[in-house]
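ok, trying the design again with the full structure, not the truncated one.
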């Protein structure tokens, strides 16, 4: 009991330092804060390369015995935890209405019993990157495990993530394009030495212009990663080229939101960017990812917009 309380107090101190020291996603332990949507989650645990790995699964009642179920993988930020992502994003509520499964994978940490988990995004971040954790293999195995629970639609597997989770979603597009149809990075950029996707992947990116953790223009953020991030434009431009999109770009400014559309692209894919003027590091339309973090912009509902984009961009039949 004393050991548990000591761990909780240590994490509370880390989280309470504020956004100046956070990479993204640092949240209170479940025993100190229980997000309402966490009650609908079921934890799946399996052995991967000799290590116990897990994910939380939300299955709306209407899809439990349905054929060809779409799946959205939602990745927490660095130092984060999957239990808080339903409230941060609102994906559970949308899944209940729209009829898709949501899986919230859990990253890894060097400190046993303390949830300071990260994802190996290639060049960033934290323990997962420094130890070269095989998170790509883990997600491949996760999808295999998920297919034993429901009849997943292989053409409609999508990945979304916040900060370090967004960085990892870009890596999934690079290295798991045979399984992932589209990605939705939020407040994170592509940071990988070499990206050679096996097929085009649709991308919809959300970023606040006032993001201090992952600056939209690139460079060092104010978080603990000590990493110089690639600019948002570089990440988007890479996929415009990789997806062989047309040169023409449609731009629309609606209030504080700049929306760019690059399409048509190869195999029916598309690349879209939403810049939110004055938006901080966080999930637009959601709730703050951590105590002390700035409230996200409400100028756009990233979850709703992202899901509409995902629905419109499954893998083509020829990509099976």
């Amino acid at each position: 009991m004393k050991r548990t309380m000591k761990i909780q107090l240590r994490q509370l101190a880390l989280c309470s330092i504020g956004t100046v020291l956070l990479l993204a996603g640092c949240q209170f332990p479940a025993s100190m804060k229980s997000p309402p949507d966490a009650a609908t989650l079921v934890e799946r645990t399996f052995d991967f390369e000799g290590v116990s790995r897990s994910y939380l699964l939300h299955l709306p009642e209407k899809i439990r015995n349905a054929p060809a179920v779409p799946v959205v993988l939602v990745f927490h930020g660095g130092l984060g935890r999957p239990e808080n992502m339903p409230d941060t994003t609102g994906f559970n509520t949308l899944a209940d209405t729209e009829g898709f499964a949501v899986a919230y994978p859990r990253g890894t940490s060097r400190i046993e019993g303390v949830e300071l988990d990260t994802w190996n995004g290639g060049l960033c971040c934290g323990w997962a990157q420094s130890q070269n954790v095989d998170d790509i293999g883990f997600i491949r195995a996760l999808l295999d495990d998920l297919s034993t629970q429901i009849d997943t639609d292989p053409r409609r597997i999508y990945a979304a993530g916040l900060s370090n989770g967004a960085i990892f979603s870009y890596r999934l597009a690079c290295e798991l394009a045979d399984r992932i149809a589209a990605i939705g990075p939020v407040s994170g950029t592509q940071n990988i030495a070499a990206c050679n996707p096996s097929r085009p992947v649709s991308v919809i990116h959300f970023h606040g212009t006032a993001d201090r953790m992952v600056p939209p223009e690139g460079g060092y953020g104010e978080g603990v990663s000590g990493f110089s991030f690639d600019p948002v434009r570089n990440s988007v431009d890479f996929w415009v080229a990789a997806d062989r999109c047309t040169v023409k770009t449609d731009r629309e400014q609606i209030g504080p939101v700049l929306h760019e559309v690059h399409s048509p692209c190869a195999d029916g894919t598309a690349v879209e960017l939403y810049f939110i003027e004055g938006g901080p590091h966080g999930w637009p339309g959601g709730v703050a990812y951590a105590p002390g973090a700035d409230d996200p912009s409400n100028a756009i509902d990233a979850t709703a917009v992202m899901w509409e984009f995902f629905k419109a961009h499954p893998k083509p039949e020829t990509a099976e």
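Keeping the full-length input from now on. The two ends are 51 Å apart (CA to CA).
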